[in-house]
Amino acid sequence: MGDEQYQQANQWQFGDSAEMADALLALVIDGQKRATCGSLQSYYDDNEPLPQVDEINIILDGRGRRACAIRITEVALWRFCDVPEEFALAEGEGTFEEWKQEHRRFFSRNGEFSEEMKLVCFRFELVEEF
């Protein structure tokens, strides 16, 4: 297992449930998911640094185990209503309309949704699977 070299990397999992974390992780491993986003406010609320280009992050599975390392290749701030279709499709979670619907649900479930809300959107590449 080569993940020892990433001890200082940020570690996180996708979504807000173990099932979602595992499902989205599988899309990363399969090469279908190469982008993700989160609300800018959640970074402030959790006192977490914004992602940076070339930063390595560790993605955890639904049980909190280190599953893979990704390298951030691009970071952008967009309002929800301004997210380009091409970016949403890079998230690998369906059509643009499906992406909008699921993200509206996700952000509403987590206490905040607005068409004007700012999102931290970033692209990444898979570096290593553990």
Return the CATH class. Answer: Alpha Beta
Percentage of β-strand residues: 25-35%
CATH topology group: Sulfate adenylyltransferase
Q: Quick one: overall form?
A: globular
Question: How many structural domains can be distinguished in the coordinates?
Answer: 1
CATH architecture tag: Roll
Oligomer: single chain
List segments where confidence is low: pLDDT < 50 over at least 5 consecutive residues: none
Radius of gyration: 14 Å
The helix count comes to 4
Describe this structure in words.
With 130 residues, this protein is α+β, with helices and mostly antiparallel strands. The chain has a single domain (9-129), classed as Sulfate adenylyltransferase. Helix content is 29%, strand content 30%. The chain contains four helices and five strands; from the N terminus they run βαβαββααβ. The protein has helices at 18-29, 40-45, 85-90, 96-109, and strands at 10-12, 35-39, 56-60, 66-79, 118-129. It has a five-stranded mixed β-sheet. A hairpin with a 5-residue loop joins β3 and β4 (66-79). The chain is globular and about 40 Å long. The relative contact order is 0.25. The mean pLDDT is 94.
Could you give the topology of this structure?
Layout lengths: L9 E3 L5 H12 L5 E5 H6 L10 E5 L5 E14 L5 H6 L5 H14 L8 E12 L1
Parallel strand pairs: 1-3
Antiparallel strand pairs: 2-5, 3-4, 4-5
Brief descriptors of the model:
130 residues; alpha+beta; 5-stranded mixed beta sheet; 5 strands; single chain; globular
Summarize the structure.
By secondary structure, the chain is α+β, with helices and mostly antiparallel strands.
